[in-house]
Design brief:
The structure holds two protein chains of two kinds. Chain A is of the alpha/beta class. Chain A has two domains: 33-59 and 95-209, 3-Layer(aba) Sandwich (Rossmann fold), CATH 3.40.50; 66-92 and 214-397, Rossmann fold (3-Layer(aba) Sandwich). Helices cover 42% and strands 19% of the residues of chain A. Chain A is built from 16 helices and 14 strands. Chain A has helices at 26-42, 46-59, 70-76, 95-108, 122-134, 144-149, 151-159, 174-187, 205-213, 215-228, 243-249, 278-281, 319-326, 337-351, 357-369, 391-397, and strands spanning 15-16, 19-23, 66-68, 80-85, 113-118, 137-143, 163-167, 192-194, 234-239, 259-267, 283-287, 289-294, 330-336, 378-383. In chain A, a hairpin with a 1-residue loop joins strand 11 and strand 12. In chain A, helix 9 crosses helix 11 (243-249) and helix 14 crosses helix 15 (357-369). Chain A is globular, with a radius of gyration of 19 Å. Chain A starts with 14 loop residues before the first strand and ends in a 7-residue tail after the last helix. Chain B is an alpha/beta fold. Chain B has a single domain (13-257), classed as Aldolase class I (TIM Barrel). Chain B is built from twelve helices and nine strands. The chains are: A alpha/beta, B alpha/beta. The A-B interface holds A 21-27, 29-31, 169-170, 175-176, 179, 182-183, 186-189, 284-289, 294, 296-302 and B 49-51, 53-54, 56-57, 60, 67, 71-75, 98-101, 103-105, 125-131, 148-151, 153-155, 157, 161, 172, 175-177. Chain B: InterPro entries: Aldolase_TIM (IPR013785), RibuloseP-bd_barrel (IPR011060), Trp_synthase_alpha_AS (IPR018204), Trp_synthase_suA (IPR002028). Chain B: It comes from Secundilactobacillus silagei JCM 19001. Chain B: Pathway: Amino-acid biosynthesis; L-tryptophan biosynthesis; L-tryptophan from chorismate: step 5/5. Chain B: Pfam families: Trp_syntA.
């Protein structure tokens, strides 16, 4: 694996057109500034880069496979489908890429305590894992609804030595977990690093998360070139806050022939109230430290959102996604619960891969679009995580009662 | 000199806070009028927000109560409350809210309504100095002060923030979110001294103050004291009977901040 390029995007201002910024309480401003400066320094520090590289290779199991999904390709009868297997990383999701980078930064900043928010639990597990690895204290904030539907991940985090706080305020999901983590951070800044899991929040988080996750597309681009000699025609990834998607897009943004597609969680349908399809249904706003697109009412109150996937039910998207959507560089499509669950079953039977329900939103889009493409065209679809955590809730969705 | 700065003239200012629409339209009007009658120098009205990241459990709960009946509570209804309040008192008013509420209404339209109704300032906890540029032109045009927050960890930002301030400066007493507490940062005097070196704009300390003793102590350090959660607790506990309690509490606190002669 070649070393990760952390200087891919020359725009390091934290502004993506009108989006981005640092809309955050004064208490945190100096700390964000320290973090920004530390990141700008360490991303060019040879020792830091070597440490990062070694951790990605020896601990996270990178590079992840770019797998040609032959049965799926034949079955769908159109474009050739390659799956970027982030589900094969240590801890079972792309989240580890960002967590290794940020935790390493935290260590160099002299921090001894990591806090994090988590939706499905994948980011919480990844953070708890790296905290254990570095011998750091770790506390994870998770909506009460999510601790209930992702009990396995709660136990995994505790097993790894983290303390999990079920958040009972608001709608008790991911956005409320972020509120709680931010509030905890304002109480204790000195020794604490807030390790944000998505490409959201105030600068420098969207930038750092994009850079650390860009390992996905850096590898995919090289791997596909080795296998086919070509660029993909389309890259598809699921979008909640958008970390795996921005990482999957990053190295292709400047290749205009590559179509970029983000699969959003439409829940019960983009036109219903039970949705999390931010780009399609949302509007510009300011929340969680960033100007971006949000699901909100006319007054500006943030809407409760819904998706079967705990990792995608966030009422906003990262500012760079809002920018890519606005400029038309990327397209965002809604995938319903039903479509995602069908894809979960499809890819299991077709390829023998139990993929995360989040990732299955991307797979569902591939099922729709691949048959409409030519056989010489190529789709790279990111499987952001593995689906073990979802098995019991999918069984329940199908009306099957299993002990969990 | 702005109306808010005026409120600190020759005295220490007591600045209570309540959340709009908690418990309802009429209650808000009565509560604000009672605070004014009790001797509040400025009243801060919180516009409820679904996700108040700078607020502790008490004000969060007030926001939830305020939005419970009508999650789509229009901003215009809150402006109507202010219009009703204005029929009964000319106490200086300021809004505390999160930037998205102002952004959605439109910066120009929002500040124009503020000017029309005598809302002289905006406290926006998620709008640090670096992000105020987008709201500032409209606020200046309509004579609405953007009240900045300075915290015990603002460090070398203190002077920059203070120099840009109008109205008054909100000095955050300690780390964390709003809510009653028994201890404050121990370097608040130094913080206020640094502010006073670069500006004559008055300072008021907030976050955690609830007893008269604390109010007296804080008013010796700064030019005023802001009390939020304690007032909100009275509203939560007494409902329709809150105005009488708020009036008594304000009298007591106003006296407490002025317990010592002005410097």
């Amino acid at each position: 694996m070649t070393e990760l390029n952390l200087n891919l995007n020359k725009n390091t201002t934290g502004r993506y057109g009108d989006y981005g910024g640092q809309y955050i309480p004064e208490t945190l401003m100096n700390e964000l500034d320290r973090m920004t400066k530390a990141y700008e320094h360490y991303k060019n520090d040879p020792e830091f880069k070597t440490e990062l590289h070694d951790l990605l290779v020896d601990y996270a199991n990178r590079p992840s496979l770019l797998y040609y999904a032959e049965r799926m390709t034949k079955d769908l009868g159109g474009a050739q489908i390659y799956l970027k297997r982030e589900d094969l990383n240590h801890t079972g999701a792309h989240k580890i890429n960002n967590v290794i980078g940020q935790a390493l930064l935290a260590k160099h900043m002299g921090k001894t305590r990591l806090i994090a928010e988590t939706g499905a639990g994948q980011h919480g597990v990844a953070t708890a894992t790296i905290a254990a690895y570095f011998g750091m204290e770790c506390e994870v904030f998770m909506g009460k609804k999510d601790t209930d539907r992702q009990k396995l991940n709660v136990y995994r985090m505790e097993l790894l030595g983290a303390k999990v706080h079920p958040v009972t305020s608001g709608s008790m999901v991911l956005k409320d977990a972020i509120n709680a983590a931010l509030q905890d951070w304002t109480k204790r800044i000195d020794d604490t690093y807030y390790l944000m899991g998505s490409a959201t929040g105030p600068h420098p988080y969207p930038l750092m998360v994009r850079d650390f996750q860009s390992v996905i597309s850096q590898e995919a681009k090289t791997q596909l070139k080795e296998k086919t000699g070509k660029l993909p025609d389309m890259v598809v990834a699921c979008v909640g806050g958008g970390s795996n998607a921005i990482g999957s897009f990053a190295n292709f943004i400047d290749d205009p022939s590559v179509q970029l597609v983000g699969a959003e969680a439409a829940g019960k349908g983009v036109e219903t109230e039970l949705t999390a399809a931010t780009v399609e249904r949302g509007s510009n706003g300011i929340f969680h430290g960033m100007k971006s697109m949000f699901l909100q009412n006319k007054t500006g109150q943030i809407n409760p959102v819904y998706s079967i996937s705990a990792g995608l039910d966030y009422p906003g998207v990262g500012p760079e996604h809002a920018y890519l959507a606005k400029t038309g560089r990327a397209q965002y499509v809604g995938i319903t619960d039903d479509e995602a669950v069908d894809a979960f079953e499809y890819i299991a039977k077709m390829e023998g891969i139990v993929a995360a329900i989040e990732s299955c939103h991307a797979v569902a889009y591939v099922r729709k679009i691949a048959p409409k493409m030519r056989k010489d065209q190529i789709i790279v679809c990111t499987l952001s995580g593995r689906g073990d955590k979802d098995v019991s809730s999918i069984a329940k969705y199908r009306g099957v009662d299993i002990d969990d | 000199m702005t109306k808010l700065t005026d409120a600190f003239k020759n005295k220490k200012a007591f600045i209570p806070f309540i959340a709009a629409n908690d418990p309802d339209f009429e209650g808000t009007v009565n509560n604000v009028v009672a605070l004014a009658k009790g001797g509040a120098d400025i009243v801060e009205i919180g516009i409820p927000f679904s996700d108040p990241i700078a607020d502790g459990p008490v004000i969060q709960a007030a926001d939830i109560r305020a939005l419970k009946e009508d999650p789509d509570l229009p901003m215009d209804t809150i402006f109507d409350m202010v219009a009703e309040i204005r029929k009964q008192t000319d106490v200086p008013l300021a809004f505390l809210t999160y930037l998205n509420i102002v952004f959605q209404y439109g910066y120009e339209a929002f500040t124009a309504r503020c000017e029309e109704l005598g809302i002289y300032g905006l406290v926006i906890p998620d709008m640090p100095l670096e992000e105020r540029g987008e709201l500032e032109p409209a606020a200046k045009k309509h004579h609405v002060d953007l009240i900045p927050l300075v915290t015990p960890v603002s460090g070398d930002r203190i002077e920059k923030i203070a120099k840009a301030a109008t109205g008054f400066i909100y000095v955050v007493s300690s780390l964390g979110v709003t809510g009653e507490r028994s201890e404050f940062a121990n370097d608040l005097s130094e913080l206020v001294t640094r502010i006073r070196k670069v500006t004559d704009v008055p300072t008021a300390i907030g976050f955690g103050i609830h007893t008269p003793e604390q109010a007296t102590e804080m008013a010796q350090i700064a030019d005023g004291a802001i009390v939020g959660s304690a007032c909100v607790n009275i509203v939560a506990e007494y409902g329709k009977q809150a105005p009488a309690k708020l009036l008594d509490y304000t009298k007591q606190m106003e006296k407490a901040v002025n317990a010592h002669p002005v410097r």
